[in-house]
Amino acid sequence: MYIHKSFILFLLGLIVFSAVFSANTDTNTDTDTDTDVESDNERSGLGRVRYFQATKDLRKCAFPQCGGYFLKMVNIGGQQNDIYVSSIEGAKIDDGSLNEFILSGRLSNGPSFTRTLYIQDTYRLLPLDSPSTLEIKRYFIYRNNVAYELNTGRNYRVNYYVENYSNQINNINEEWLDYKINGHSVIYGNVRNGILDIDRIFIQLPDPQYCPDFPVAQCSPGYIATYRVDNTRCILPTGCARQGICTLSIPTCPNGYTLMSVNSKPNGCPKYYCDPSFLLIFT
Description:
Blueprint: H1 5-26, H2 35-43, E1 50-56, E2 69-73, E3 83-85, E4 87-89, E5 101-109, E6 115-125, E7 138-143, E8 146-149, E9 155-157, E10 160-162, H3 165-168, H4 174-181, E11 185-192, E12 195-205, E13 223-229, E14 235-242, E15 257-264, E16 269-276
Parallel strand pairs: 4-6, 10-12
Antiparallel strand pairs: 1-2, 1-5, 2-3, 5-6, 6-12, 7-8, 7-11, 8-9, 11-12, 13-14, 15-16
């Protein structure tokens, strides 16, 4: 029996497509019908979204069936399969540092078996050069003395929190750190006896969200324009100060942080801060 060559090529192409599609669907068993998680987050005031960690898909097959990202919802553990998406939209994220991010957003199905994560908020790990303890930890958003556990609907009353960043990062802006912890970060840690023990902090981006523009102070000879950094890291003018004698020592920052300074009152001397380097604050 004679079989035309074009028919054989068609069958081979169909087999390859079926294998690729099967490889994709094996790790893509989740569909965007799980609204319980989104409803739990919405009731907690966290938005009708889910919170994910992402890894790059390194499989070698044709895009969009391969080459996208695998998502896992935080705090769910072994109860879930990887969720494959062909793209992530709404924020610029470096594929090389995906493990430093928590992403909140919603999934949307597209044509040709594609799916996209549309990001609502992006959170990046604040560097801390110390080992994590072996205790079981969860991901929270903390605000108004309540720790809201992400993706589960559970929440815990908190009397106070403890963290190691202010002790281990010299010259970190502690007012800014407190502001970020209270509702502007994802917190990794645990809650026991009303105490939120913070192991790591993923700060919300961009940071700062917005800073107003101010005219540069016009100072008399012998005086210097001065500034202060507020709890959102905006640099605000405070007028002029007579330039005095300043210490010559300049502090250093640990890995992952960059030294910045502003001339401050009363003598116009530099006030130094160690800011996360990924925020690209240079002076």
